[in-house]
Amino acid sequence: MKLRYLILLKTLAIGVIPSSHPNTNDQTTLTEFIEKETSIAWQGILNNIGADGALVQGAHPGIVVASPSKSNPDYFYTWTRDAGLTIPAIVARLTQPANDDHALDRILQQYATSQATQQAISNPSGSLTDGTGLGEPKFHVNLTEFTSPWGRPQRDGPPLRASALIAYGNHLLTTGQTTTLAVASNLWPIVRNDLAYVTQYWNESTFDLWEEVRGSSFFTTAVQHKALVEGEAFAHALGEDCRGCAHIAPQILCHLQEYWDGGARAVRTNLPTSGRSGLDANSILAAVHTFDPEAPCSLEDRGTFQPCSSRALANHKAFVDSFRALYGVNRGRGVGTAAAVGRYAEDVYQGGHPWYLTTLAAGEQLYDALYQWDRQGVIAVTAVSLPFFRDLVPGIIPGSYFNSSDEYVTIRDAVRQYADGFLLVVQEYTPEGGGLAEQFDRDIGRPVSAVDLTWSFAAFLTATARRRGEVPPSWGALGAGPAPAPCRATSIPGHYATPVVGSWRVHDELR
Ligand code: NOJ
Ligand code: NOJ
């Protein structure tokens, strides 16, 4: 009687809570899913960009709207961060062979022009005169200032926008599609303002990318450093001068090291820690958005946070593990198996569920690392990264495994399978129509919070591009370290000027 009751209970439980996950390690369904979802993600992004985007009526040309959702939450705004993270995905598409889609060039040029206007709009963070207005996180889609209370300033916006425009500018320069002069006159004035903002304000407190806590934020520091390094090279290519970039960048790289918690083998993403563990997708996003395919994995304690570095791998494990027991959807996903991940374990925003874009980024970091290992021909398992590797290859010991060894192949295949697992999680909780919202319910996996989140779609496109081995050009991380010691919090006052709007000739030149 007792036994039968138990069996019945067990059967019922299995009926409600899946303890195994249907697609796990099914490569065929994953490839099919990626193919189908790629066109949905593309359309999803285009739908959210003005003026022609189907879901964002009233949006100014080139304005990237965060989501069409107008209530609970109201995301019908343009965030400098979300836009700055979406534009590179569009540039990457343009750089694919046999893709000279003039419609995409038009969108990128309209984005640039819209940002020239946006930079000059005075807002609650300040104005362009002293650069302070550049730290404003979001604007109305018709390009007017948003005046309600908000977590401001957010100092990741300007460097992300600079990097997005530099990516497009470099694309135009390397393809010879347009003259250096056209890039210099249309993109550089906007980029110069954003770089000046970074050199002047990088060390002042900021709201983090989640717009919640004030202080230093790892993601913000990482993208600030990258923008100055590539800004210096971009200026040089244009015959311009990036005032202070070369001087300040090493100090930012120095500051970046200060977030590392050696005991926890993880990044404390916010300083002060605000009572949180510090394990946060902030650091995973920092790794994938400062990934440099040509950078070495080493330079451990004085370098950039490369996806293949021991620190970034140890941090990946600590971060992913922090969600395993937290979400019902992770039942049956033990250590070494991919899991659904959110922003950070303590999160309660919109229910504090797992996010699509963070789960995708967890996979993306590993595809990046795989690319770097293959390029360098060696995987280093160190004392710091050992726990990460042990979960995937039990019994592995520290050492350098060259690509001629069996161990190299074993590790590589295990990491690849682990990486695919994150995409399989996303596949499992993507609804029939393929729309990617912001979050998916922690117990039943159905989409929650903002629908058709532009950033979710962009995260899908970059993660799956890396899976195919498509990587962005080097941004110069190789030459950027080691960081000096001790750190010096120096700053250089910027010069700001209203960028000239509407001078694009590039599109006409292309015709
Ligand atoms: C909330 C997220 O925390 C923030 O990073 C994002 O910019 C906005 N939503 C808009 O997507
Ligand atoms: C430690 C200081 O407390 C902080 O203000 C500064 O940003 C970093 N060092 C980097 O120099």
Automatic annotation (TrEMBL):
<protein>
    <recommendedName>
        <fullName>glucan 1,4-alpha-glucosidase</fullName>
        <ecNumber>3.2.1.3</ecNumber>
    </recommendedName>
</protein>
<keyword id="KW-0325">Glycoprotein</keyword>
<dbReference type="GO" id="GO:0000272">
    <property type="term" value="P:polysaccharide catabolic process"/>
</dbReference>
<feature type="signal peptide">
    <location>
        <begin position="1"/>
        <end position="22"/>
    </location>
</feature>
<keyword id="KW-0732">Signal</keyword>
<keyword id="KW-1015">Disulfide bond</keyword>
<comment type="similarity">
    <text>Belongs to the glycosyl hydrolase 15 family.</text>
</comment>
<dbReference type="InterPro" id="IPR000165">
    <property type="entry name" value="Glucoamylase"/>
</dbReference>
<feature type="domain" description="GH15-like">
    <location>
        <begin position="40"/>
        <end position="463"/>
    </location>
</feature>
<dbReference type="GO" id="GO:0004339">
    <property type="term" value="F:glucan 1,4-alpha-glucosidase activity"/>
</dbReference>
<keyword id="KW-0378">Hydrolase</keyword>
<keyword id="KW-0326">Glycosidase</keyword>
<keyword id="KW-0624">Polysaccharide degradation</keyword>
<dbReference type="InterPro" id="IPR012341">
    <property type="entry name" value="6hp_glycosidase-like_sf"/>
</dbReference>
<dbReference type="Pfam" id="PF00723">
    <property type="entry name" value="Glyco_hydro_15"/>
</dbReference>
<dbReference type="InterPro" id="IPR011613">
    <property type="entry name" value="GH15-like"/>
</dbReference>
<keyword id="KW-0119">Carbohydrate metabolism</keyword>
<dbReference type="InterPro" id="IPR008928">
    <property type="entry name" value="6-hairpin_glycosidase_sf"/>
</dbReference>
<dbReference type="GO" id="GO:0000324">
    <property type="term" value="C:fungal-type vacuole"/>
</dbReference>
